[in-house]
UniProtKB/TrEMBL annotation:
Any one GO cellular component localisation term in the record: endoplasmic reticulum
Database matches in InterPro entries: Gal_mutarotase_sf_dom (IPR011013), GH (IPR017853), Glyco_hydro_31_AS (IPR030458), Glyco_hydro_31_C (IPR048395), Glyco_hydro_31_N_dom (IPR025887), Glyco_hydro_31_TIM (IPR000322), Glyco_hydro_b (IPR013780)
PANTHER family reported in the protein's UniProt record: ALPHA-GLUCOSIDASE, BCDNA.GH04962
Lineage of origin: Eukaryota, Viridiplantae, Chlorophyta, core chlorophytes, Trebouxiophyceae
GO molecular function: alpha-glucosidase activity; carbohydrate binding
Residue ranges of every copy of the Glycosyl hydrolase family 31 C-terminal domain listed in the record: 681-770
Organism annotation: Coccomyxa subellipsoidea (strain C-169) (Green microalga)
Glycoside hydrolase family 31 N-terminal domain sequence ranges: 108-297
Major localization class: endoplasmic reticulum
Keywords: Endoplasmic reticulum, Glycoprotein, Glycosidase, Hydrolase, Signal
Family: Belongs to the glycosyl hydrolase 31 family.
Residues spanning the signal sequence: 1-36
Protein name per Swiss-Prot or TrEMBL: Glucosidase II subunit alpha
Pfam families: Gal_mutarotas_2, Glyco_hydro_31_2nd, Glyco_hydro_31_3rd
């Protein structure tokens, strides 16, 4: 019984020897911090009283009162006690199809904060019923589908196994602690009722209220997720159990960490407390719905991986996702927190941003530059300097005298404009937004109840209280065309600085004892704040869309920097203020994938790096990688040199044009991947292990990725590279995406390929069909009527399948069934097109667009001659004599069926006969 510190070194009084280990581990764990970020501005675990108290702290004194265990429907409840601490709380274990929810809370009179708005409203419909397998005086054994859960009473512990194999245990290391709310007393330990960081006093009126626990994954060497950190995808250990030394734990606290260091467990702009564990044959997940500051330690032993979580306040509301495949984990998470909102088609094109495009002439010039250099793009962005003194919703009249005309001109080329709107409101009584918000008491208050006054871009600012639904509704109204002067339906929005960033606050954010709606302290919802602001903004665009277009409206596009679980239902995020160096290019991949598997696939990194100046090589390579980012935007800092795609010399311009054009070629495939993200929560850019969980060697890979199921990209991430080591998992076959040639790696899947500045090593996965659009256009709007190409890559049986999702690309009409989702399959030389089984056929959305080209790779031999007949009518569509003519962009070893002119939304089959 009693407390025992297993990580004494983290408590700040470590011996010389542990300090030595600490330094050693710091370097061995590769968490060197670069000098650009001001590390000392941000807290470490030892600077946060609750982390100091609970991380790594054991307490064997928690137990279940056996007499209190009760069943009711899907729930099992019990009293969880700790005599020494006087804790008496309720444990609830709820069963759902595919996941389990553990809740620990005090009685309602204590009013602990419960995160609102994140869970899906229909969660209740997924409830399942436990079946009781055994109950003794010591434990209870329950069953749910394939899973068994054992609740051990004393010491308190929960074990979960799937098909008889243990996959997770909760409190196996007795690191569960629940600080129940209490009265202040003489002699209470330091840090309970007040603490100070860098001169900022946190008054902590509710005293200690932190919660911690451990979660262990047996036989598991890789855990992922918990974004946002600039680290490897497979999380490095932060604690070494053998010698008790530690590095910093992963921190989840939304902060404006500019020039963040790659390879650091620092908390960045967004937080999703969702962890994945992957071992051979089983993927599981754990999601803690808690928006307070959080730290997570990861430790690895020969027996598996152990994690130790602590949050400053709130309740324990922990979802354990039972997988057992990666796709199932994604689907379960989407059932809990929602799937990705379907983006507008244009949002998947290329975005050109800069802090700042100076004035209207500058915008027009950049817009014209894309046409002059024949580079497609869809959106031009305006940063803070477009406003009148950083008063959002206003325009600097001398720089942007006629913003409506400007947007209309950009729109006449099929393009959009994005403006920035941040949550800090200039405290200027003459500014209408400030005036209304102040009069209505819509601002966050300081601990004394006055409107909080913090410093941000406009100077002295107040921050909207987005927890209050009335404030969100009022905010949404500000986007009406009649309110937002100078806006048009072609204007979309960007929310920055919404962690929130406060230049004068502790750790460049807001005081934790600030007050929100109904006297909730900021500490409880810090990580949710930015997501609520994002949500209010997106609601504004939805309402504007309804006013302009009627009930099918216009899907919103709002990019956010801060995020939380559930942000996927609102819009995309980007990975914040990165730097123009190779390390940041490299780390963008694990960052994007980590956010993607945490249910938020629509994200990307600033191309070129926000700070600094990329040279032509880095800028070229970055664009070549970003072709495949789910969100593709070039951006640069105010002090950075201009970097429009044509400013790096002729060769670089050609290569960047190729990279951006390749993006547009892939858009039908990418849009289809987003349809899957919208229906089942699948990520778009995927780790190799997501597609090949049965290949153990993929589990640690994060310098290659899959774009959907069909394309593997092994991008060049090193300066001056002359070759690239490529890993092609599984049996294949794989084909070079450039030549269509089969690629033969060694038995382990490895091969080394030579590279030039033109190379983007990427591979077609046999068995898949990708829909493409190959005609070069200036924007997605200009390609709207273009025909499609099917790229068919055969597997070893000569088969392949793939799909294409189509709708109007902009409205919500698809939610009324106005879409088509085509399934293409190729077998025994027959290619057919039908509506996805289960959907109404014919589809309710149809077009007269056609397939203009079918490219088949993997026939294994050049075709001497071939013929294509329509099945049913017998009509001969085409005959050809080999060898196949080579064309630019067509793999050399492919058979190309030209102009079959088959309707993309019509049902048909064609039979191909080939003479070798
Ligand atoms: C690590 O901590 C454990 C538990 O406190 C202790 O038994 C062990 O001796 C420690 N190991 C070292 C190397 O200090
Ligand atoms: C798909 O996105 C739309 C918004 O575009 C949303 O309303 C819908 O709920 C999403 N689908 C799912 C299954 O979450």
């Amino acid at each position: 019984m009693g407390e025992e510190m297993i990580n004494p070194s983290r408590k700040g009084n470590h011996s010389f020897l542990t300090s030595f280990f600490l330094i050693f581990l710091f370097s061995s764990l590769q968490f060197q911090l670069s000098t650009s970020v001001k590390v000392e501005d941000f807290k470490k675990c030892t600077d946060a009283a609750f982390c100091n108290r609970l991380l790594g702290t054991r307490d064997e004194g928690y137990y279940i009162d056996p007499a209190s265990v009760q069943f009711s429907g899907p729930s099992v409840t019990a009293r969880l006690l700790n005599k020494a601490k006087g804790t008496d709380v309720t444990l609830t274990m709820k069963a759902y199809k595919g996941f389990v929810r553990l809740l620990v809370n005090e009685d309602a009179s204590k009013k602990r904060f419960e995160v609102p708005g994140v869970l899906m409203h229909d969660l209740g419909s997924r409830e399942a019923i436990w079946s009781k397998k055994a109950q003794t005086a010591q434990s209870l054994l329950l069953q749910l589908e394939d899973a068994e859960m054992q609740l051990q009473y004393s010491p308190f512990q929960i074990g979960i196994s799937i098909k008889g194999k243990p996959v997770m245990s909760f409190n196996g290391r007795q690191m569960f602690n629940f600080e129940h709310l209490r009265q202040k007393q003489e002699g209470d330990p330091e840090g309970w009722w007040e603490e100070t960081f860098k001169g900022h006093v946190d008054s902590k009126p509710r005293g200690p209220e932190a919660i911690s626990f451990d979660l262990e994954f047996p036989d598991t060497q890789h855990v992922y997720g918990l974004p946002e950190h600039a680290t490897s995808l497979s999380l490095n250990p932060t604690v070494d159990l053998a010698d008790n030394a530690t590095s910093e734990p992963y921190r989840l606290y939304n902060l404006d960490v500019f020039e963040y260091a790659p390879e650091s467990p620092f908390g960045l702009y967004g937080s999703i407390p969702f962890l994945w564990a992957q071992k051979l044959g089983v993927a599981v997940g754990a999601f803690w719905l808690n928006a307070a500051e959080m730290y997570v330690d990861v430790g690895k032993t020969e027996e598996g991986t152990f994690t130790n979580w602590v949050a400053e306040s709130g309740i324990l509301d922990l979802f354990l996702l039972l997988g057992p495949t990666p796709a199932k984990v994604s689907e379960q998470y989407a059932q809990i927190t929602g799937a990705t909102a379907l983006p507008q088609y244009f949002a998947l094109g290329y975005h050109q941003c800069r802090w700042n495009y100076r004035d209207e002439a500058d915008v027009r010039q950049v817009d014209a530059g894309f046409d002059a250099y024949d580079i497609p793009y869809d959106v031009i962005w305006l940063d803070i300097e477009h406003t009148d003194g950083k008063r959002y919703f206003t325009w600097d009249k001398s720089l942007f005298p006629d913003p409506v005309k400007l947007q209309e001109d950009v729109a006449s080329h099929g393009r959009k404009v994005v403006t920035i709107i941040d949550p800090h409101i200039k405290r200027d009584p003459g500014y209408y937004i400030y005036q209304e918000a102040e009069q209505n008491h819509y601002f966050v208050r300081d601990k004394d109840g006055k409107d909080f006054d913090g410093w941000c871009w406009p100077g002295s600012s107040s921050y909207l209280d987005m927890l209050n639904p009335e404030v969100r509704a009022w905010w949404a109204q500000q986007f009406a065309l009649s309110k937002y002067k100078g806006s048009t339906p072609n204007l979309y929005v960007w929310n920055d600085m919404n962690e929130p960033s406060v230049f004068t606050g502790p750790e460049i954010t807001m005081q934790k004892d600030n007050l929100h709606w109904r006297e909730v302290e900021h500490r409880n919802l810090h990580n949710l704040y930015g997501a609520l602001f994002h949500q209010g903004t997106a609601e504004g665009l939805i309402e504007r869309g309804k006013a302009v277009y009627g009930s099918d409206a216009d899907r919103p596009f709002v990019l956010s920097r801060a995020f939380f679980a559930g942000t996927q239902r609102v819009g995309p995020i980007w990975t914040g203020d990165n730097c123009a160096d190779w390390k940041h290019l490299r780390v963008s991949l694990p960052m994007i994938m980590s956010v993607g598997i945490a249910g938020l696939p629509f994200n990307g990194a600033d191309v070129g790096g926000f700070f600094g100046n990329p040279d032509a090589e880095l800028q070229t390579r970055w664009n070549q990688v970003a072709t495949f980012y789910p969100f593709f935007r070039g951006h640069a800092h105010l002090d950075a040199k201009r970097r429009e795609p044509w400013l790096f010399g002729e060769d670089a311009t050609r290569r960047i044009r190729d990279a951006i054009r390749a993006r547009y070629v892939l858009l039908p495939y990418i849009y289809t991947l987003f349809r899957h993200a919208n229906t089942t929560g699948l990520p778009v850019m995927r780790p190799l292990w997501y597609e090949f969980p049965e290949v153990e060697a993929t589990h640690g890979v994060d310098d290659e990725f899959m774009l959907g199921p069909a394309l593997l990209v092994s991008p060049v991430l090193e300066e001056g590279a002359e070759s690239r080591a490529v890993f092609l998992p599984g049996k294949g076959p794989w084909y070079s995406a450039r030549t269509g040639e089969p690629v033969k790696p060694d038995a382990g899947g490895a091969l080394t390929v030579p590279v030039t500045m033109d190379s983007v090593p990427s591979y077609l996965r046999g068995g898949h069909i990708m829909p493409l659009r190959e005609r070069a256009r200036r924007s997605t709007a200009a390609a709207r009527k273009d025909p499609y190409t099917l790229l068919v890559a055969l597997d070893s049986e000569g088969q392949a399948s793939g799909d294409l999702y189509l709708d109007d690309g902009s409205s919500f009409a698809y939610k009324r069934g106005l879409f088509a989702h085509r399934l293409f399959s190729f077998k025994d030389g027959m290619l057919s097109n039908q509506e996805l089984p289960g959907n109404p056929s014919p589809p309710r959305y149809s077009t007269d667009l056609v397939i203009e080209r079918i490219i088949i790779v993997g026939l294994g031999h050049p075709a001497k001659s071939f013929s294509v007949k329509e099945v049913g009518t017998g009509k001969v569509l085409q005959t050809g004599a080999g060898p196949v003519v080579q064309e630019a962009g067509v793999p050399e070893l492919a058979l190309v069926i030209r102009k079959p002119e088959l309707p993309v939304t019509g049902d048909w089959s064609i039979q191909l006969s080939v003479t070798a």
